[in-house]
Amino acid sequence: MRLFDSHAHIDDKCYEKDFTRMLERAEDHSVKGIMAVGIDIGTSRRAINFAETHDHVLASVGVHPHDATNCSDETIEELVRMAQTHSRVRAWGETGLDFNRMYAPVEDQEMCFEKQLHAAQRLDLPMIFHERDSNGRLLEILRSGNAVERKAVVHCFSGTREEMYAYLDMGFFIGITGILTIKKRGVYLRELAVDIPEDRILIETDAPYLTPAPQKNKHRRNEPAFVRSVLLKLAEIRGRDPEELSETIWQNTERLFGKL
After folding, report:
1. 146 near 117, Cβ under 8 Å?
2. What is the pTM of this model?
3. Please, what is the average pLDDT of the chain?
4. pLDDT at 147
5. What are the start-end ranges of the H helices in 54-90?
């Protein structure tokens, strides 16, 4: 079995004391690939550093909607330069809209998102979309013409069935997190997950957040090793052999981000 954690924030400070052991645990649990995700200039730079010093790590650059107020033209151009300079940068994001906590005004989020859509298109990079409680606005922006022939994954999908099919119709992948494993919180996601075409599924941890079951009973911090639990639950609810499903999802991930 080989697993690809398609979304992890391994630059987080919580890993500073045991970073090497964290990666070793991932390897011990068949995690052969990790996408280290950037959410601003600093985290994007650290993601690139990890990717250039670890053969099984790729990197993305981007600005999270929480930080949209600081999304200047200079910020975007610096991220573009980083992506152009480093071949291990294989995606743009995490970017999108988050109207749940509203760390940035709607206008700033939308402007920042559109700037990044254009930047990723310039670089021909696939995108990692973040969407939370945008009430269809992210889809509206994408349908305005920005999604034409665009490759992307909807990270940590938590939307409706209608939204899921809309993303699939655009050709996007659907990222499944440990929410799938949670008894009550994951009920609706488990209902939807059985209907996602197998060639459009990615699995992810969003580490250090969203620790899956059963690890959440012992560990507050999520880490790439735990993506195995997401895969096993997904295989269970779809009635699939875990090893066969893991290989399909590995191939999906490489179709989006390129080969390690």
Report:
1. yes
2. 0.97
3. 96
4. 52
5. 73-85
